[in-house]
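User: I've been going back and forth on whether these two constructs are worth ordering. Before I decide, could you fold them both?

Assistant: Sure. I'll take them in the order you sent them. The first construct and its structure tokens:
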Amino acid sequence: MAMSAVARETVFALRRQIAKIEETLPERLQAPAGAPLDADASADVTSSADLTIVRRGLAAALPDAFLPTGVERLDAALSGGLPKAALSEIHGGQTRDAGAVAGFALSLTSLILKQAHGLPVLWIGTSEIFGEAGFPYARGLHAAFGIEPGQLLFSEAPRLVDALWVAEEAARMTALAAVILEIRGNPQRLDLTATRRLHARAASAGRPVFLLRQAAEPEPTAAPVRLIVASAPAVPRATVAGPLAGSIGRPAFTITIGKSRTALPGQFTLEWNPDERAFDERRGEEKRERAKDPVAVVSLLGSRKDPAAASGAVLAFPAVVGSSATGGQPPPGQRATHFGPRRAG
């Protein structure tokens, strides 16, 4: 038994050293009884904890180090969820995806504020991005995400360099629950060095920093996680009698993993439940469930018995067939007024 414990401890130490040298992807290991993690590791970590060896093998991430989304398959692909003390990228492929990116970021903010009671969230952006995408609606924050208007602070910077400076200073503040930086495109100033500074300060403060990138192409950054967000079609609202045709259900997002610690690809369709303040994954037939008639449903008048007909090609006058003299024009009685003879005198 003694030889087995020594051999297990030796293998554990060798694997950590190899991961540190090769900078390989993280792997889950079970620490041997009484084995320290590193020379500078804290001694209060229990030996039976499920440890995640991160890049460079410097520390072990405990389960509390991640923000779970509540979707089992997505959290498994992200090795537990989004890191709480790191920089995370949320991409929108096109400018029209700005609403979906902002909605997904607000959903994550709602999950964070459940754990960080009383702390505000700072949203930083340039005048260009706020002028293009706008600001979140105050009443909608509380109704859809449970966020009080006073919990979400905004900082509008005239230039990108000013927005980056504010983000770096805010990322190291423990008085904030999270920091959101919204940038458009692929500016040269937001390079690998700038993202390294944001990531390092987020790790030092133990707070998440979300980098929202509108209409941007993926490029090398220090963020360990990159999610590509787009809007997904809403399914009809569920009622006791079944789906309500023509109605609009809960907001939905298509989430694609572009980069993660586990390097596992995946695409998920998530719905945000504004009542439970949680994500639900849409699967199977629900993805293909759509409203059959795109015409808006309106209340019927008292004098009408049938609803309005579905939209289609509508002609002002019926086509006249077989009349070569008129050239396919309507009869004189149905011609428009401006085609009639002008008044003389």
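The second construct, handled the same way:
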Amino acid sequence: MRRAATKKAEGATEWGRRRLLGILVAAVVVAVLLLGGLGYAVYLAVAGIGEEASANTDVATGETDRSTVAQGAVHRDEVAAEPMLAVPESAAFPAATPSAKVPVIKVPAGTGVNGPAFVMTGFPHTPEGAIGQLAQIDLAVLQSMSLTTAAEVYNAWALPGGVRAEEWWITASVQAFLTSTGMGEVKDPSASVSLEPAAALVKGTDGPDWTTVCVLMKVTASYKQEGQIAFAHCERMQWVGGRWMVAPGAPPAPAPATWPGTQLAHEAGWRTWSTDDTTDPDHIEGDH
């Protein structure tokens, strides 16, 4: 009886908070490697993922001047591929945030209407609208943690000319999470994953119909224990048929996963997320 009790205690320890956090980190790191293969592996080695934050100031921290005239594929590839601040894995864990005022980005609320694959749509034809749409795409997939949902969402929201659904950054993250937890193709009913958009940035634009944007999420995962981590994601986005879609081309350089509101997040260029409720059709002028 004592031996059985000991084994039970060991099992409980095995599924402690540290292991859950390790799985969340693995989901991000493995996704990067699966996404770009050798190319991204080299990038990680050069950028120093898992080490100290890069001192290199020649990194993308967000665009301030918007491009009004499209320059074409070469410029778009340059915007997407420009490296961002390299940060250690520990930067993604909850940390104290300074009280100083931080830059804010106003993201439209959308119309609340579900589009293809039950992803909320109705975001305006602006880079901030692209941010709002990308966040909804991420939320639909990551909260379900289902490979089937990931494929359905990607196929409904990605234009031809990009990676395949199974090579998509978010699909790879879901696969890594499910594999690490041994859950199969969908998450265990007792597990939950919730996301909160916390920050964003516009990495670059090329005319009014194309942009590369990035979102930073607070992820809370619960499976026998609870843990939190920051999750960052950049995508090329293109305005087609009245909505923002994932654009063709190679995936952008990995975004820095920093806990929102920290000094390192500020150095990486993240702007604190603020929902612009004036774009909500239910918004009534004068409401507070």
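Notes on the second construct follow. Confidence is low (pLDDT under 50) at residues 1-15, 29-55, 283-288. The chain has one domain: 2-279.
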